[in-house]
UniProtKB/TrEMBL annotation:
Keywords: Repeat. Residues 368-460 form the DYW domain. Transmembrane segments: none annotated. The keyword Transmembrane helix does not apply. This is DYW domain-containing protein. One of its GO terms (biological process) is RNA modification. Belongs to the PPR family. PCMP-H subfamily. InterPro entries: DYW_dom, E_motif, PPR_At4g14850-like_plant, PPR_rpt, TPR-like_helical_dom_sf. GO terms for molecular function: RNA binding; zinc ion binding. The keyword Transcription regulation does not apply. PPR repeats lie at residues 22-56.
Length: 460
């Protein structure tokens, strides 16, 4: 009870004063600390447990996922599989599996996700709607759309609004707007399943990725008038994003003024992002002012405004005490997830990676590549700007993959920030010159590069 109420001190006191600490009591206190984000202390208690069951392992794995420690979650799941001399083998259940799949999806660890799926099949764990939705989400986030579709279709008559919503959101992330609309129609018309708020986040997101103003307005209206769903801040954010990215800044501002709730970080961030694309400094500065009132340490907001300044040759933005989130990319090679940060030299084969990258860039230059330095945030000479761009984390990741995988092997990269224009151009050219299919999932959407073009149609 104390744990559920978030009163950790009282929960700990009851636990400490208990004469006989049984397994449910241990599980409760471990789960309490894990849910509160005190994952290191939860792990300490977990290691002290005299015995553990599937709930013990699942609580801590879920805690790692909630804290964003996805590698640690997968490591703990692997530890769960190992034989132990002092306790019986613990078989994972549906909740364990769905949590592990979430970690795989966040990391883009497709091979590990496929292994979990094989484990589910091998031990005949029932793929109910919860586990099926988790599989769809994992495959989608790992860049394997076809596998996501196969799981979705295999659910057959079990498909409910959660499964449909997961698949619609998946298609939206890939920019497959027409398929998104078709699936929405199949759900609502053919199968008489009413959409929920998540469904509309996906469908409005699909409109954003294609810049479909009229369709976005129509679905936003449909949400309330046909299905009685009250729009949340996420739905309003989608519409502001749609107006902003389409260059309709005045309409976006009017829409914000008409909102029944106070705009949050998401809303002002969407306006800032849209006005950045147009180079509208005045709107950018206004949106930034409102955004930092709500979140003073939001480094991403300053970076967006800095991008605009850089494009116009202004480098006067000086902000103290704000630490920019470093660009970070993940790739999985032979079941191992490798992490790269901008200018990374921590890899064992760093020297070789940089040498391969230089060979790639030289080949691109011979094919006509010219660096897109417009958004480099530093007041540097052109040559130094090009050098700064060449060490972006996704470029290091692609060099590593080309070095470690056979020709023709697809490359999947997970990026924590929005992919920049120069890296986007480089990925397009590599996909053609090296005959590689490249999938990049950035913080906003999927980019599927093939034969010199991208699925986003250069609109992101």
């Amino acid at each position: 009870m104390y744990s559920s109420c978030g009163d950790l001190s009282s929960a700990q006191r009851v636990f400490d004063e208990s004469d006989s600490k049984d397994l449910p009591a241990w599980n409760s206190v471990v789960n309490a600390y894990a849910k509160a984000g005190l994952i290191d202390y939860a792990r300490k208690l977990f290691d002290e447990m005299p015995e553990r069951n599937v709930i013990s392992w699942s609580c801590l794995i879920n805690g790692y996922v909630m804290c964003g420690k996805y590698k640690e979650a997968l490591d703990l799941f692997r530890e769960m599989q190992l034989p132990k001399s002092n306790e019986a083998f613990v078989s994972p259940n549906e909740f364990t599996m769905s949590t592990v799949l979430s970690a795989c999806g966040r990391l883009g660890a497709l091979e590990q996700g496929k292994w979990v799926h094989a484990y589910i099949d091998k031990y005949r764990v029932e793929i109910d709607i919860v586990l099926g939705t988790a599989l769809i989400d994992m495959y989608a986030k790992c860049g394997s759309l076809e596998r996501a579709k196969r799981v979705f279709n295999a659910l057959g008559s079990k498909k409910d609004v959660k499964a449909y919503s997961a698949m619609i959101c998946c298609l939206a992330m890939y920019g497959l707007t027409d398929e998104c609309f078709q699936l929405f129609s199949e759900m609502t018309t053919s199968n008489n399943i009413n959409p929920n708020s998540v469904t509309f986040v996906g469908i409005l997101g699909a409109c954003v990725h294609r810049g479909l103003i009229n369709e976005g307005k129509s679905y936003f209206k449909m949400m309330t008038e046909e299905f009685g769903i009250i729009p949340s801040i996420q739905h309003y954010g989608c519409m502001v994003d749609l107006y902003g990215r389409s260059g309709l800044i005045k309409e976006a501002e009017s829409f914000i003024a008409s909102m029944p709730m106070e705009p949050d970080v998401l809303i002002w961030g969407s306006l800032l992002s849209g006005s950045r694309m147009l180079g509208d400094i005045k709107t950018c500065e206004g949106a930034l002012k409102r955004l930092i009132e709500l979140d003073p340490m939001n480094s991403g907001a300053y970076v967006l405004l800095s991008n605009v300044y850089a494009k116009t040759g202004r480098f006067s933005l000086q902000v103290k005490g704000i630490k920019k989130v470093p660009g970070c990319s993940y790739v999985e090679v032979e079941g191992v997830v490798h992490e790269f940060v901008v200018g990374d030299e921590s890899q064992q084969e760093s020297e070789r990676i940089y040498a391969i990258l230089e060979e790639i860039m030289q080949r691109l230059r011979e094919a006509g590549y010219v660096s897109d330095t417009k958004e480099v945030l530093l007041d540097l000479e052109e040559k130094d700007k090009e050098m700064a761009l060449s060490y972006h984390s996704e470029k290091l990741a692609i060099a590593f993959c080309l070095m470690k995988t056979r020709p023709g092997t697809p490359v999947r990269i997970i990026k924590n920030l929005r992919i920049c224009g120069d890296c986007h151009l480089v990925m397009k050219m590599i996909s053609k010159l090296f005959s590689r299919e490249i999938v990049v999932r950035d913080c906003n959407r999927f980019h599927h590069f093939s034969d010199g073009s991208c699925s986003c149609r250069d609109f992101w």
